[in-house]
Amino acid sequence: MGSVCAKRGSVDLTCCPRENAEEKVKNVSQIKMPTMIRRPPTIVCYICGREYGTKSISIHEPQCLKKWHNENNLLPKELRRPEPKKPEVRTISAKGFYDLDALNEAAWKSAQSQLVPCNICGRTFLPDRLIVHQRSCKPKVAK
Ligand SMILES: [Zn+2]
Ligand SMILES: [Zn+2]
Questions:
Q1: Please, what is the Cα angle at 79 between 74 and 81, to 5 degrees?
Q2: Ligand 1 centroid – CA 49 distance (Å)
Q3: What's the domain count of the chain?
Q4: CA of 77 to the centre of ligand 1 (A)
Q5: What is the pLDDT of residues 55-104, one digit of tens each?
Q6: The domain containing residue 51 runs over which residues?
Q7: Is residue 39 part of a domain?
Q8: 20 within domain boundaries
Q9: Which residues pair with 92 in a beta bridge?
Q10: Which ligand sits closest to the CA of 66?
Protein backbone atom coordinates (compact mmCIF):
# COMPACT_ATOMS: atom_id res chain seq x y z
CA MET A 1 0.00 0.00 0.00
CA GLY A 2 2.65 2.42 1.08
CA SER A 3 4.83 1.67 -1.97
CA VAL A 4 2.01 2.38 -4.39
CA CYS A 5 1.37 5.72 -2.83
CA ALA A 6 5.04 6.64 -2.91
CA LYS A 7 5.37 5.63 -6.54
CA ARG A 8 2.34 7.54 -7.54
CA GLY A 9 3.48 10.47 -5.53
CA SER A 10 6.91 10.57 -7.11
CA VAL A 11 5.51 10.27 -10.61
CA ASP A 12 3.06 13.07 -10.02
CA LEU A 13 5.60 15.37 -8.55
CA THR A 14 8.51 14.92 -10.92
CA CYS A 15 7.22 14.26 -14.42
CA CYS A 16 3.71 15.16 -15.34
CA PRO A 17 2.90 18.25 -13.32
CA ARG A 18 5.89 20.22 -14.48
CA GLU A 19 5.32 19.37 -18.12
CA ASN A 20 1.67 20.08 -17.81
CA ALA A 21 2.33 23.29 -16.07
CA GLU A 22 4.70 24.46 -18.75
CA GLU A 23 2.30 23.45 -21.45
CA LYS A 24 -0.47 25.24 -19.69
CA VAL A 25 1.55 28.42 -19.51
CA LYS A 26 2.32 28.12 -23.20
CA ASN A 27 -1.29 27.57 -24.07
CA VAL A 28 -2.47 30.44 -21.97
CA SER A 29 0.01 32.80 -23.56
CA GLN A 30 -0.87 31.53 -26.99
CA ILE A 31 -4.53 32.15 -26.39
CA LYS A 32 -4.32 35.46 -24.61
CA MET A 33 -1.39 37.28 -26.12
CA PRO A 34 -2.39 37.56 -29.79
CA THR A 35 -5.62 39.39 -29.10
CA MET A 36 -3.74 41.88 -26.98
CA ILE A 37 -0.76 42.36 -29.23
CA ARG A 38 -2.07 41.98 -32.75
CA ARG A 39 -4.63 44.66 -32.29
CA PRO A 40 -2.83 47.99 -32.33
CA PRO A 41 -3.89 50.20 -29.47
CA THR A 42 -6.71 52.47 -30.44
CA ILE A 43 -7.95 55.60 -28.77
CA VAL A 44 -11.59 56.51 -28.76
CA CYS A 45 -12.27 60.04 -29.90
CA TYR A 46 -14.16 61.75 -27.08
CA ILE A 47 -16.05 63.85 -29.60
CA CYS A 48 -17.32 61.41 -32.20
CA GLY A 49 -16.71 58.11 -30.38
CA ARG A 50 -14.81 56.53 -33.25
CA GLU A 51 -11.58 54.65 -32.71
CA TYR A 52 -8.29 55.95 -33.97
CA GLY A 53 -4.73 54.79 -33.78
CA THR A 54 -2.50 56.40 -31.17
CA LYS A 55 -0.87 58.53 -33.85
CA SER A 56 -3.90 59.56 -35.86
CA ILE A 57 -5.94 60.54 -32.82
CA SER A 58 -3.78 63.61 -32.23
CA ILE A 59 -4.42 64.68 -35.83
CA HIS A 60 -8.06 63.77 -35.74
CA GLU A 61 -9.07 65.37 -32.45
CA PRO A 62 -8.57 69.04 -33.37
CA GLN A 63 -10.21 68.41 -36.74
CA CYS A 64 -13.09 66.62 -35.11
CA LEU A 65 -13.56 69.44 -32.62
CA LYS A 66 -13.57 72.00 -35.43
CA LYS A 67 -16.14 69.97 -37.30
CA TRP A 68 -18.12 69.63 -34.13
CA HIS A 69 -18.20 73.42 -33.70
CA ASN A 70 -19.21 73.93 -37.30
CA GLU A 71 -22.03 71.46 -36.97
CA ASN A 72 -23.06 72.73 -33.59
CA ASN A 73 -23.34 76.27 -34.92
CA LEU A 74 -25.65 75.09 -37.65
CA LEU A 75 -28.00 73.44 -35.23
CA PRO A 76 -31.12 75.05 -33.91
CA LYS A 77 -30.52 76.50 -30.48
CA GLU A 78 -32.36 73.81 -28.61
CA LEU A 79 -30.13 71.14 -30.10
CA ARG A 80 -26.82 72.84 -29.44
CA ARG A 81 -24.68 71.19 -26.87
CA PRO A 82 -21.88 72.34 -24.62
CA GLU A 83 -18.47 71.63 -26.07
CA PRO A 84 -17.38 68.12 -25.28
CA LYS A 85 -14.66 68.02 -22.71
CA LYS A 86 -11.82 65.62 -23.00
CA PRO A 87 -12.26 63.19 -20.16
CA GLU A 88 -9.30 63.04 -17.87
CA VAL A 89 -8.49 59.61 -16.71
CA ARG A 90 -5.58 59.31 -14.42
CA THR A 91 -5.64 55.68 -13.73
CA ILE A 92 -2.18 54.57 -14.56
CA SER A 93 -1.65 50.87 -14.28
CA ALA A 94 1.11 49.31 -12.25
CA LYS A 95 3.29 49.09 -15.34
CA GLY A 96 3.22 52.81 -15.84
CA PHE A 97 0.96 52.80 -18.87
CA TYR A 98 -2.22 54.74 -19.06
CA ASP A 99 -5.18 52.54 -18.53
CA LEU A 100 -6.37 52.58 -22.12
CA ASP A 101 -9.57 50.78 -21.38
CA ALA A 102 -10.61 53.27 -18.76
CA LEU A 103 -9.58 56.13 -20.99
CA ASN A 104 -11.52 54.78 -23.93
CA GLU A 105 -14.54 54.05 -21.84
CA ALA A 106 -14.59 57.61 -20.55
CA ALA A 107 -14.12 58.93 -24.08
CA TRP A 108 -16.89 56.72 -25.36
CA LYS A 109 -19.25 57.91 -22.66
CA SER A 110 -18.34 61.47 -23.49
CA ALA A 111 -19.14 60.84 -27.14
CA GLN A 112 -22.40 59.15 -26.20
CA SER A 113 -23.45 62.14 -24.15
CA GLN A 114 -23.31 64.10 -27.38
CA LEU A 115 -26.26 62.16 -28.66
CA VAL A 116 -29.67 63.74 -28.45
CA PRO A 117 -32.77 61.64 -27.90
CA CYS A 118 -35.56 61.96 -30.42
CA ASN A 119 -38.55 63.42 -28.63
CA ILE A 120 -40.85 61.22 -30.67
CA CYS A 121 -39.35 57.74 -30.52
CA GLY A 122 -36.69 58.20 -27.84
CA ARG A 123 -33.81 56.85 -29.89
CA THR A 124 -30.58 58.81 -29.61
CA PHE A 125 -28.90 60.46 -32.57
CA LEU A 126 -26.20 62.92 -33.34
CA PRO A 127 -28.01 66.25 -33.58
CA ASP A 128 -27.53 66.62 -37.31
CA ARG A 129 -28.81 63.09 -37.79
CA LEU A 130 -31.69 63.76 -35.48
CA ILE A 131 -32.92 66.55 -37.72
CA VAL A 132 -32.86 64.21 -40.69
CA HIS A 133 -34.43 61.46 -38.65
CA GLN A 134 -37.25 63.59 -37.30
CA ARG A 135 -38.39 64.39 -40.80
CA SER A 136 -39.38 60.78 -41.20
CA CYS A 137 -40.09 59.87 -37.60
CA LYS A 138 -43.77 59.93 -36.99
CA PRO A 139 -45.36 59.36 -33.63
CA LYS A 140 -47.19 56.07 -33.46
CA VAL A 141 -50.82 56.71 -33.99
CA ALA A 142 -52.88 55.01 -31.37
CA LYS A 143 -55.80 53.45 -33.08
ZN1 LIG B 1 -13.73 62.39 -33.56
ZN1 LIG C 1 -37.67 59.38 -33.72
A1: 90
A2: 6
A3: 1
A4: 22
A5: 899 999 999 999 999 989 988 888 888 899 888 766 555 565 667 888 89
A6: 34-136
A7: yes
A8: no
A9: 98
A10: 1
